[in-house]
Structure formats: C-alpha cells, structure tokens
Amino acid sequence: MNNKRREDNRVLYYADKLKKKIYYGVPQYIHYVYSLHYMKRNRKIINKKISNREILNVVFIIQYIPGWNKLEPIYSKMKADHRYNPIIVCVPLDINNHVYSGGKYNDTYDYFIEHGYDVINALDGQGEWFDLKQLNPDYVFHSRPYNNFMPKPYTSKSIQKYALICNVMYGATLTVNGQNVEMGKDYYNDVYCYFAFDKSEKKFYEERFLIGCKLKIQKCLTYGAIGLEQMLQARVTDNNNNSTFRKNVLWTPRWSTDPYIGGSNFFKYKDVILGLAKKNKDILFILRPHPLMFDNFVKTSEMTETEVIEFKKYCKAESNIILDEEKEYSKEFWESDFLITDISGILPEYFITQKPVIYCHSDVAFEYTEYASRMIETCYEAYDEKDLIKYFYELSDGKDVKASSRKDCIEDYFSKVHRSSQSIVNALAKKN
C-alpha cells in the first residue's frame, strides 16, 4: 500500500474521531453531575457497612488479561482479609460498541479457570449477561477504563448507580498526552477513587475532575504502581531457562501511529529488527506487539489483512523469532536479556527488573511525566536505525554502561512499590 493512500486514510479516520468527541461532550457533563449524586449516596451506604463491621463485596471485572497484574495483588490481599469478599467476573475480550458476537464462548473465563481461580462467567449460558447486582457489590474495579469495550450492564455508567467504582491504571502513563486519553471522562466521571502512581499524576487527576474533588466526593490516593509490585513477586531467579540461544531480546512496538496517543515505530524498524534476527541466529527475538496493534493497523488502512498474515507467517517460519501474543508476560520479562521498545505502559514494569532497555523515540514530541523523563534518560535512546543497531550489538556483547544509573532511578521512584496493594486494601476499609 503506498504511503499517500495510507496517510489519506489516517486523516479521514481521525477527523471522524474528532467529530464524535464534540458531539458527545455536553451529555457527558450532565451525566457527571448525576454520577456525583450516586457516588455520594453509595458512599454513605458503604460507610454504614464499615461502621457495622460488615464484609465488603468487591467485584473485579476482568476482560483485559494483561492488565490483571495491576489488580491481582489487591485481589490476593483482599482474599486473605476478613473485611472483604473479593469476586472475579470474567468478560470476553472481543466487544466493540457494547456488542459481542462470540456467542457463548468466553476466552477470559477459560483463562482464569485454567489458572485455578474461582470466577464467575459474565455470559450466563443463555446469551445474556450475568446480573452484577446479584453480588451486591460495594466496590468495583475494571481491568481497563474503556466503556466502549464493555457490555452496557458492565459499563461505569450502569454500575455507578449502585456501587463505587475504583481504578488502578491498567498500564503506566508516561506522557501528558497519554493521561488525557487514558483518563477519559467517559469512564472516569464515574470513578469514586483513583489510585495514582505519583504526586504529579494525582495533581493531573484532581485538576481534570475538579468539581468532584473540590466537593470531596471523588478522591485520588497515590498508591499506584501495582503492576511493579506483581512483577517483583513474579521474579524468576533462574534466568537460564535451558535456552540454546546466547541472548533473549524482546521487541514491543506500540499499537498506534496516531501522533496524539501513538508514536509506533513498527513500520520504521520492522525490517531492521527482522534483519538483525537474520544475521544473529544465536539470539532469540521475541516480538510482543500490543494486542490491539494489528487490528488497529488494518482498521486505519496502514496494513492489509494479507500483510498481517504474511508477517505472522514469516515470523513463524524463522527459527529464532517468536511472535508472542500470549496474555501474560512477567516470566518472559525476567527471562529476557534486554528490551527494545516504543513508548509503552509496560516500560516501568520491565525497568524494575533492572535489565537494559533500548528506548525508540518517534517523531511525536511527547511531554513526558517527571518520572518517565528520568527513566528514559537511563535507557539507551535510539533516534534512528543507526542508534538501534549500535545499542543492540553493545548490549548483545554485555556492555551495559547505564546499569548504575538505572539502579539509582529505581531507588528514587520505585522503592516503595511493594506496599502499594496493602495501602489500597486498608484505604477502602476506612470510613470517609
């Protein structure tokens, strides 16, 4: 597909998104006022339960499995806490505009059953959605903050009428651009308590939801970075993994080239990465694209379905390339030697392993958050193909001159993450 046609299609796609944003703005504000009313009422009900020492029902609506590591530490601690009754409800992944066309199959439910969890299937077997009200929930967590990908009864707009919604971001937010998108008002207008990563993120939240925070109906606590806590718990001490390869290298391209939320270097470095794999058969290349990447590129006409199929076929045929589309990645992070990545919410999770990172800058002029700027400074920053190849060979040979500065950055910003989930559990059991 030629570049001009690809660019024209992208312009039309994002122009349509802008029109929708303006159209839905006014009703959203009206809904926000009603949502604050429900929050205030629901908070009184929960405070009464806390005073009477009743057990709090907490529902975890899980759909996006890579985001489970942000909630699993909270769930596990609540499971062992007499004050809580935590419940997992599994929603299938492929839902768009609230519509699911997968029949009775629930991939999320199957995944959790296979891993030994006691969970509820959101599909009740009759093609209907399980009624969450039966669980009498006090607090509800979603695995990601996008109503569009939920059935209508499970959206924040429906749930906020009878329960308080809490949120931990499903991935770390590294830019102000990302905060604007990921903390969208369509969902967060209904969030009672957001657990932020740091003070700057708390400040952003309180300014964005000024009315609710000023009225002390909504609140934000700096108990985030839960994914980092889970990553440390999942640490693999034996990095050998009986691999026949000299090094294991991860590549995680971003899912979108959209200048506002994207910056993907997939097209820029695809041939470079494949070329390095061809020249270095003693190194294993694990390509781990975002779950939305290929579908998004087809949707925006940046790739055809045939091109996606051919790319996947090529990777499968190569002896030292794995196209990893599995849902869990903690073990893979610990068993790798270094990461090549675009801007991504998984960067802090990999960073805390203390392994080196080649950070690929894009043409997008991101406004990084404070901790992200410091973190990226301790990565190997690639601006072009020459930089990427240079750092690849240096790290492949074990030359890691930034190891000490990475360790200092981790100490400054991530030294307290192991206490995050317990702080959240304690906070939700207090009257307020």
Q: Summed up, what is this model?
A:
The chain is an alpha/beta fold. Helix content is about 45%, strand content about 15%. The model has no long low-confidence stretch (mean pLDDT about 90).
Structure description:
- The protein has 432 residues and is of the alpha/beta class.
- It folds into two domains: 24-222, Rossmann fold; 233-414, 3-Layer(aba) Sandwich (Rossmann fold), CATH 3.40.50.
- It is 44% helix and 15% strand.
- It is built from 19 helices and 15 strands.
- The strands form three sheets. A seven-stranded parallel beta sheet has the order 5-2-1-6-7-8-9, sandwiched between helices. It has a six-stranded parallel beta sheet with strand order 12-11-10-13-14-15. A two-stranded antiparallel sheet has the order 3-4.
- The protein starts with a helix and ends with a helix.
- The model has no long low-confidence stretch (mean pLDDT 88).
